[in-house]
Write a structure and sequence with these properties.
This protein is an alpha/beta fold. It is built from twelve helices and 13 strands.
């Protein structure tokens, strides 16, 4: 019999933290047992939290007190979800892992440590074995795994079946990202209302860097070109939507490539979470729409089951025999953060990295 595992959610009052609370409140075997924060410590969760998502604060959680981010108080916790802000996250996560905690992080601080997996469970599940190296090198009983930048996931998930099956030579991405991607309170209203705000060269570059790492960890059916031979670029923007990153991609190939075959590869794409029937795995990680003028952020961001776990792809077009276009929409705080974190934890449990007995 599987026991119920106890989870701590660090940053539980944040925009990603609330999605963890929402998703774990209904989870079959992981329960939110410890809610941690900083400014909100000592207050009842239901009173202090800004519940900027669907539904209401789960009843059984509303009265829980927000506690300090202190591993000494979390003795009986099996999994630590860490959507802490950049900079604050790194040292806290190391402290937890050193003490034997299993940390699933959404923050960027450890994403490029050579022994830390950066996981999209359908795309590179085999990289969990980096944990063995991490524990050995650092002499840790616990570990840190990360999930990638939400923007990178919105492109990398649909690009995976393309990269697996066709000879890509280039990808040009333009993003329109929601406000919640910047956390609470985010961007000053006067900077974003009536505006499309370029996120700048640094954000463009980290998007490309993360997509490159993810694709380099994909198992392929075609021998070449390797990921470093593919020209990859991104131009990133923030717009005044609340949730959902909308991305436009132009993909070029080394040989004539039929957009219908590309579409079929996306529609049939599945991974280990689907084979293992993990509770947070959507039946289809990519939902392809052929409806004109879809996906739309407002109507499609909660696509899939569990809601928000499928990336919606549409507007597929054969631009010329060697170029196609598609757009994708990802729920940034769900598939791009908390949902991806819960699915990663389920995979780690299934693979024996988190004890379920
Ligand atoms: N938002 C997204 O779409 C998204 C997607 C992927 C990844 N991420 C990553 O997820 C992380 C969190 O993002 P978010 O949007 O949820 O941010 P957020 O809304 O600003 O929430 C931050 C949370 O962290 C807590 N906190 C702040 N400083 C802390 C500290 N020094 N020690 C302990 N707790 C602290 C806050 O607690 P109090 O309220 O109690 O002060 C709050 O709960 C970031 O690293 C971000 O890059 C975000």
């Amino acid at each position: 019999m599987r026991r119920t595992l106890k989870a701590a959610i660090l940053g539980a009052t944040g925009l990603v933290g609330i999605e963890y609370v929402r998703m774990l409140a209904d989870h079959p075997y992981i329960k939110p047992a410890y809610l941690a924060g900083k400014g909100s410590v000592g207050k009842p969760y239901g009173e202090i939290v800004r519940w900027q998502t669907v539904g209401n604060v789960p009843k059984e959680i509303a009265n829980q007190e927000v506690k300090p981010t202190d591993p000494k108080l979390m003795d009986d916790v099996d999994i630590v979800f860490s959507p802490l802000p950049q900079g604050a996250a790194g040292p806290v996560e190391e402290q937890f892992a050193k003490l034997g905690f299993n940390v699933v992080s959404n923050s960027p601080d450890h994403r490029f440590d050579m022994d830390v997996p950066m996981i999209i469970p359908e795309v590179n599940p085999h990289t969990v074995t980096l944990i063995d190296e991490q524990r050995k090198r650092r002499d840790w009983k616990g570990f840190i795994v990360t999930t990638p930048l939400c923007t990178a996931q919105g492109a990398a998930i649909p690009l995976t079946p393309i990269y697996q099956n066709f000879k890509m030579s280039g990808v040009m991405i333009t993003t329109m990202q929601s406000l919640s991607g910047a956390g609470y309170p985010g961007i000053a209203s006067l900077d974003i209302v009536d505006n499309a705000l370029p996120l700048g060269d640094g954000y463009d570059a980290k998007t490309v860097k993360e997509i490159t790492r993810i694709l380099s960890e994909v198992k392929r059916n075609v021998p070449e070109p390797g990921v470093n031979e593919i020209t990859l670029d991104a131009t990133t923007h923030r717009i005044a939507t609340i949730h959902g990153h909308y991305e436009v991609a132009y993909v070029t190939f080394k040989e004539d490539t039929d957009v219908r075959k590309v579409m079929d590869s996306m529609e049939s794409f599945k991974g280990e979470p689907q084979d293992l029937k993990l509770p947070t795995a959507p039946e289809k990680p990519i939902l392809v729409t052929t409806q004109d003028a879809r996906p739309q952020v407002f109507f499609d961001r909660w696509a899939g089951n569990p809601p928000g776990m499928s990336v919606v792809v549409g507007r597929l077009k054969q631009v010329n025999p060697r170029t196609i276009r598609f757009v994708s929409l990802i729920h940034n705080t769900v598939r791009g953060a908390a949902g991806g974190g819960v699915l990663t934890a389920e995979l780690l449990i299934e693979k024996g990295y988190i004890d379920k007995r």
